[in-house]
Amino acid sequence: MKAAVWYGEKNIQIEEIPLPVISDDEVLVKTKAVSICGSDLHAYKGVSKRRKPPLVMGHEFSGEIIRTGKNVRNLKTGDRVVIEPIISCGVCRSCNKGKTNACGNRKLIGLHTTGAFAEYVNVRGEKCHKIPQTITFEEASLVEPLAVAVHAVNITPIRKNDTIVIIGSGTIGLMTCQVAKYSGAGKIFAVDTIDYKLEQIKKLGAYQVINANKEDPVKKVLADGGVDVVFEAVGLQKTVQQALTMVTAAGEVTIIGMLEAKMELDMLDVTVKEIEIRGSYGYTTKDFKQALNLIASKKVNVKPLITHVLPLDDIAKGFDILAQEKERVIKVVLKP
Ligand SMILES: [Zn+2]
Ligand SMILES: [Zn+2]
User: What's the pLDDT tens digit per position in 270-313?
Assistant: First the structure.
């Protein structure tokens, strides 16, 4: 089968690799749509070392069942599915607490195993969620990143009409904005440094947008009285500090971004304002199902986020479009 094999910085090749062999608990999925994740891009650009080449990446995908292992009961050939790509152990402390997303033994398809930048993928049957005819394979490929936003909102206490800031208006920020709004949030301020992303988040429900290259987001938010909740979807020291400064006393800061590992922050602010800071990583199966339902019931619109659809052969072009950000690009979806 055809697959895109990544060999290191800016080096990805289309090659023939063997068709995956499925176990009794697995199904063979023909990949119909796979979206390039920011984390795949970080590996491609060489800024993240979490992925080790050579590797077939790709974990945000949907497809059609081609074959089922003999222990798989609830799926059949021809079923349209979206795949939940995090596989947790089910027995560790975090799994026992229901936080399967934080499982120390978890594996991700396309990081620990061969991913979906390929014509076919072998997946455990229980990780496949059937998708209704009303949503396209392209939309379904965005269930995975949407689940990240759903999880972040689910673990953050938001009261009705709470004011919110979203720092970072990329895919996760755009999705968090829609999910927070659906969950009853009041005014949402959105921050980014790229104007077309701010235009998009405004269309999707933000009350006011702030280009951090042109004005100081902290001043602007404080002038409006500060906010109850901040979602940080960048992960830099600078933006995390902005979150801590702009949130009101007794506010909530949820950090989804993960660009810088070490930061120097004003922790006195955290203590004196009694700010609750929490990390948010990935999602549980419940979040994933909720994300699928939000798309299926049209409560969240992911279509405007799909700016480019390309054949798998053009994957390097897709990565370059994302890396250069010259075009109005948010999500690149590949069709193997
Ligand atoms: Zn992802
Ligand atoms: Zn576990």
Answer: 999 999 999 999 999 999 999 999 999 999 999 999 999 999 99
User: What's the gap in Å between 108 CA and the centre of ligand 2?
Assistant: 13
| Cα–Cα distance for residue pair 118/228, rounded to 1 Å | 43
From residue 5, how far is each of 2, 15, 57, 135, 142 by CA, in Å?
10, 7, 8, 29, 22
In the reported structure, the alpha carbon of residue 106 is separated from the centroid of ligand 2 by a whole-number distance in angstroms of 6
Q: Name the pTM for this structure.
A: 0.97
Q: Which domains does the chain have, with CATH numbers?
A: 2-145+283-335 (3.90.180.10), 156-279 (3.40.50.720)
The count of other CB atoms within 10 Å of the CB of residue 326 is 8
| Residue 17, Cβ density class (10 Å: 0-12 exposed, 13-18 middle, ≥19 buried) | middle
| pLDDT for res 49 | 83
Residue 71 Cα to ligand 1 midpoint, Å, equals 29
Round to whole Å and give the CA distance between 336 and 333.
10
Ligand 1 centroid from CA 85, angstroms: 9
pLDDT digits (tens, 9 = 90+) for 4-55: 999 999 999 999 999 999 999 999 999 999 999 999 999 999 888 889 999 9
**CA 85 to ligand 2 centroid distance, Å:** 15
